[in-house]
# Entry
Amino acid sequence: MEKLSGIATALAVVLAVIAGLVDIPGVDMALIILVVAIIGGIGADQDGAVRMYLAVLVLPAVGAALGAVPAVGDYLTAIFGNLGVAAAGVSASLIVRRLIEMVMGGVSGLTSGGD
# Structure
């Protein structure tokens, strides 16, 4: 599962860059990037979750700032926006996994008969 997660995350990044450079008519690349990143987030390490949440906030802002660069600014804005979508997908998986762990921990605490 770890290899699949790593491949999916790498694919999400590659798709984010390609979608920022090339417009493919009739294809919702943001949705594809999001779904692939969610799959990548299933096996992501919970230790880096805070950095991923921060990336969701920072990447679009960096892209907007780079929009002022002559000739390539629009491409950079699109690439960083797409990377933000990928980070959001991984973050969504991390959040759901953490919530599942919390609920399962609470349920197992209720059924252990400790009190």
